[in-house]
TrEMBL record:
This is Pyruvate kinase. It holds the Pfam family PK_C. Gene3D superfamilies: Phosphoenolpyruvate-binding domains, PK beta-barrel domain-like, Pyruvate kinase, C-terminal domain. Its cofactor is K(+).
Length: 535
């Protein structure tokens, strides 16, 4: 991980670009969320995805039933056991998603400059002139001249299966549209998006609640991806619902920003959410193409300053059918990392793509290269300036650890950068604060379980906290022995630290004579110390 970091502002030797990258235990500091589906649900494929760099598995309930997803999850558990790599579980809700109802699942040819009727009558058969949809309020939401997009589920934009429509007339509950381009709708699931129009449906639907309270509870999901988040109240409502579901009160909620309404309320949503997913597929329809990058940069910056994970979607769509990304896509991934993104979310590329493992591997390699030229010093200064004074006690500890690492005096004294930062934590918050400052080296988050009771039984915390670190850039969790508390006395300090160092050595992160920065609590005091390893 500690390759010679360059800055884009510095001259880069052209010859160095051709030098092969050194293999590392962690493919990249940036995390990769993979959507599991028909092409990526076997234990073997999932094992290879984990080894390639996937750290979060996304289960999208827009398609497939609970039984299908449960089988996939059981395969994932087997893969985690065989690879010994942690993997978090993300449940993606359906939300107010509009869908074309094609019961025959046969192809539907659409010709440009012809009229097409969208009807809420789902008993009618889908034809080239009429498409049933799953929403009865469309005629009340649109007007003449509005734009409607219909695309294959997780459309990439390169298919000939996407069609643009222009509303020409509203006739009762039916909406008459002009077809703007020829296409053939083929496949089982097509989604419909109305540009910049509010759809009067709840963000967390009854179907979503049923899935969460059954499949979600059964599997103790780590993350809930709340599709079509439009207001802060959407997050509050979802959190209240989760709070009544036992262990799911610990589940983190990621707001999925997919339309202009979510964009307009972004600041309030960010305050309530645990993280943000910038869903560029639907946003790319709602926003003019030249504005998408502006929102991405602004949203990622706000997430960085708030210390909340920013996840970017739709980066290598062409790899759904191809072994290599386009030049533009490769550059897009790198720019997302330079913007400050914590994770890349792969959708169609891994769910129905032909090369799920290769996609994860290539995206990880691009992320790793971009991280080498990420300007940590500038980022750190911006972050500290944004936080301002006075900092919270925990925030100041996180800041101090990075200052020790980045100061010129410290670099001159040891002449070698620390190989890792080790942070002991019970809630995970201290480690996340460290990662917020984007140190150049990995942060090993040693999550020490705490014993809890509900007066009926004893349980240990820690598993949620460890897995939820798997979406944070630069943060790599390990579960510690619960017999050693996070707030330790000097008698247990050395034991738990030795376990963490042994873990670092076994993973290849720490080598003899390396210097390691350790952040932990000793009694009531928080301590940052530097240790040098012997042979």
């Amino acid at each position: 991980m500690q390759a010679n970091n360059l800055l884009l502002e510095e001259p880069i030797r052209m010859a160095s670009i051709l030098e092969p990258s050194k293999p590392t235990f962690f493919p990249a500091m940036t995390k990769i969320v993979g959507t599991l589906g028909p092409k990526s649900r076997s234990a073997d494929i999932i094992s290879r995805c984990l080894n390639a760099g996937m750290s979060v598995a996304r289960f999208d309930f827009s398609w497939g039933d609970a039984e299908f997803h449960q089988e996939t999850l059981e395969n994932m558990k087997a893969a985690v056991k065989s690879t010994k790599k942690l993997c978090a579980v993300m449940l993606d809700t359906i939300g107010p998603e509009l869908q074309v109802v094609n019961k025959t699942e046969g192809p539907i040819p659409l010709e440009a400059d012809t009229l097409l009727v969208l009807t809420p009558d789902q008993d009618k058969e889908a034809t080239s002139n009429l498409l049933p949809i799953n929403f009865s309020g469309l005629s009340k939401a649109v007007k003449k001249g509005d734009t409607i997009f219909i695309g294959q589920y997780l459309f990439t934009g390169s298919e000939t299966t996407s069609v643009w429509l222009e509303v020409t007339e509203v006739n009762g509950e039916d909406v008459v549209c002009l077809v703007k381009n020829s296409a053939v709708l083929s496949g089982s699931l097509y989604t419909l998006h109305v540009s910049q129009i509010r759809i009067d449906l709840p963000t967390l639907t009854d179907d979503d609640k049923k899935v969460i309270s059954t499949w979600g509870v059964r599997n103790n999901i780590d993350f809930l991806s709340l599709s079509y988040t439009r207001h802060a109240e959407d997050i509050r409502h979802a959190r209240e619902f989760l709070s009544k579901l036992g262990e799911l009160r610990q589940t983190q909620i990621f707001a999925k920003i997919e339309n202009v309404e979510g964009l307009n309320h972004f600041d309030e949503i960010l305050q309530e959410a645990d993280g943000i997913i910038i869903s560029r597929g639907n946003l790319g329809i709602d926003l003019p193409p030249e504005k998408v990058f502006l929102f991405q940069k602004a949203a990622v910056y706000k997430c960085n300053m708030a210390g909340k994970p920013a996840v970017v979607t739709r980066v290598v769509d062409s790899m759904t059918d191809n072994l290599r990304p386009t030049r533009a896509e490769a550059t897009d991934v790198a720019n997302a990392i330079l913007d400050g993104s914590d994770a890349i979310l792969l959708g169609a590329e891994t769910l129905r793509g032909l090369y799920p493992v290769e996609t994860i591997s290539i995206v990880g390699k691009i992320c790793a290269e971009a991280e080498k030229v990420f300007n940590q010093d500038l980022y750190f200064k911006k972050t500290v300036k944004y936080v301002g004074e006075p900092m919270s006690h925990l925030e100041s500890i996180a800041s101090s650890a990075y200052v020790l690492l980045s100061s010129e005096l410290f670099r001159a004294a040891i002449k070698v950068k620390a190989s890792v930062i080790i942070c002991f934590t019970s809630s995970g918050r201290a480690a996340r604060l460290l990662a917020k400052y984007r140190p150049t080296m990995p942060v090993i988050s040693v999550v020490v379980p705490q014993l809890k009771t509900n007066q009926l039984r004893w349980t240990f915390s820690g598993a949620f906290e460890a897995r939820q670190s798997l979406v944070v850039r630069g943060l790599f969790p390990m579960l510690a022995d619960p017999r050693h508390p996070a707030e330790s006395t000097s008698g247990t300090n050395e034991t738990i630290l030795k376990v963490a160092l042994d873990h670092g050595k076994a993973s290849g992160l720490i080598k003899p004579h390396d210097r390691v920065v350790v952040c932990q609590k000793v009694g009531d005091a928080s301590v940052v110390k530097i240790i040098e390893l012997d042979d």
